[in-house]
Amino acid sequence: MQKLIITAAITGAATIPSLSPYLPLTPRQIADSAIEASQAGASIVHIHARRPEDGFPSADPEHFREIITRIKHNCDAVICITTGGSVLMTVEQRAATIPLFKPEMCSFNMGSINFALHTSAKHIKEFKYPWEQQYLEMSKDFIFKNTFKDFEYLAKVTRENDTKAELEIYDVGHLYNLDHLVSEGLMSPPLHLQFVMGVLGAIRGTPEDLTFLTTKAEVLFGKKNFTWSVIGVGAAEINLSTMAILMGGHVRVGLEDNIFLKRNVLAKSNAELVEKIAKLADMLNRDIATPNEAREILHLKGKEKVNF
Length: 308
Description:
CATH architecture: Alpha-Beta Barrel
CATH superfamily: Aldolase class I
Oligomer: single chain
GO molecular function: 3-keto-5-aminohexanoate cleavage activity; metal ion binding
Number of strands: 14
Keywords: Metal-binding, Transferase, Zinc
Pfam families: BKACE
Organism: Desulfomonile tiedjei (strain ATCC 49306 / DSM 6799 / DCB-1)
InterPro entries: Aldolase_TIM, BKACE
Strand order of the largest sheet: 1-2-5-6-9-10-11-12
Largest sheet: 8 strands, parallel, barrel
C-alpha cells in the first residue's frame, strides 16, 4: 500500500466566515495556516484566496501570489491551486493563476452540479459580513458550471503548464465525463481522482457511495492507471477518511470541507484536522507520505519548476 497523502484544504469558497472564527481569511492567515498544516503532516495544501477586508472569495492573482510565495518559502508542501474558485467566477477567472504561476497541481472539476450552501444559514444567528447571507441563499438557484468546453480549456491550460490535474469527482457521471476526455486524448494516465462527497446536489458521503466510485473508476481506467483521494464534507470527513486509509486511497481534510474537530467542537486550525488524520493513520498502520514522497507517487514536476 502506498504511503498516505494528506491534503489540507485551507479556506475554500464554500465556508463563510460566520460559520467559524478560526477560518483564515487574509493572505497571511491562509499561508500561515497552510504552513502549520504541512508541519502537522499534510504533504499537499489546497489553496483558495479571499479578499482580506471581508473574506469574500477572490480570483485576484496578487492575493494568490502572496499566499503561495509565503508557503513555498516556509515549507516543502506541494501547492495545489484551485481552478474551482467560486460559483460566481468564469472558468477563465478561475484558471488565470495556472499559466501565471505554473503550480505543481491544480484542481479540475469534472462536471456541473447544483452546489447548495443555503442549509448553513440556519446555524447562524448573526452574519459577520453583509455578503454572506445572500451568498448562501443564492445557492438554492445556482449551478456550478463545468461544461465540456470548460474541460477542453482546462485540459489545455494544465498540459501547457505541466501542472498535474487533481480531478474533482462529485458524482458518478463525472467519471464518465473523464472517460470521454481520456478517449479523446485530452487527459491521459496516470490520473489523480479526488472524490468530493457530501455536497448537497451531488453524491452523498456514505460508505457504499465511496466503494461504488472506486469500483467504477477501476472499471473505466484500470486500477494501475489512477490514484484517488476522498473529501468527506462535514460529518462524513472522518468516516470516509478512515475508509480511504484502509482501502489504499488518500485523504483531504480542512476547514474548506469541515469546520468541526468532533461533534459540536470547532476545529481551531487546519493543523488540528490534519493531526487527527495522522493519529488515525498511525492507529491503522498506514505511514504518512512526506511532500517529496507525494511528488513521487503523483508524478509531479517538482517544486523547483513552478513560477513563484
